[in-house]
Amino acid sequence: MSLIVYREINNCLLGIWKITEDYDTLLSRLKLDEEEMNVLLNFKNYSRKLEWLSVRNLISEMTGKESRIIYNEMRKPFLKGNSFNISISHSNHLTSILLSKTKRVGVDLEFMSHKISSLSFKFLNNQELLTHDPELQRYHLYLHWCAKEALYKICDKQDINFRENLTIFPFEPKDKGMLKGRVINFRGLEDFLLNYERMDDYAIVWTSKETYAHQG
């Protein structure tokens, strides 16, 4: 079994799966219906197939039962029957899922393989500051990106530009900690506390919140 992280945090469940199995092994653990099999078989990329299967394996491990994932028109995932709110992320060989029965959730996981500094102009705004430590700058940029992805997901992927609508307040990156983010969109202004962690060459950020808060 490749469930490497399973935590209960503030009425949420965080799970991380390391993909070490092959296609047949992952598939053998699931009972897919005809529609799900068609989706799986339509993926051309082998890695994409493994990612898709790992998500379903991780959901089954976390909920203790077969749970079908469906998507709305914005590609936001839901569990059939609305038993949990769900957020999903995968990168390289890891898959992460955040579940909650009572809270909105958002999670993002990234393998820190790219020179992300060349893309920072696409998602950083003038209010956001990077550490002066050159050894931590790439990690700090990935935390900004992951945090904004998590906010994008928890806000239903609606009316959000990463530079204009999302702000991560200044913080010094550690191996794990908390940071603060702000979303301004058609719902108004909403602040979030986000957890972050470094796992070898991966950065992961997650957040949850009970209800929408409108301010200002």
Name the descriptors.
216 residues; Ribosomal Protein L22, Chain A; alpha+beta; five-stranded antiparallel sheet; four-stranded antiparallel sheet
Short description:
The protein has 216 residues and is an alpha+beta fold. It contains 4 helices and 11 strands; from the N terminus they run E-E-H-H-H-E-E-E-E-E-H-E-E-E-E. It folds into 2 domains: 100 residues, Alpha-Beta Complex (Ribosomal Protein L22, Chain A), CATH 3.90.470.20; 103 residues, no CATH class.
Q: What number of structural domains do the residues give?
A: 2
- The stretches of 5 or more residues where confidence is low (pLDDT under 50) are none
Q: What is the H-and-E element order?
A: EEHHHEEEEEHEEEE
Query: What is the β-strand count?
Result: 11
Helix share of residues? 10-25%
Number of helices: 4
CA radius of gyration? 17 Å
Mean pLDDT: 92
> What profile does the largest beta sheet have?
5 strands, antiparallel
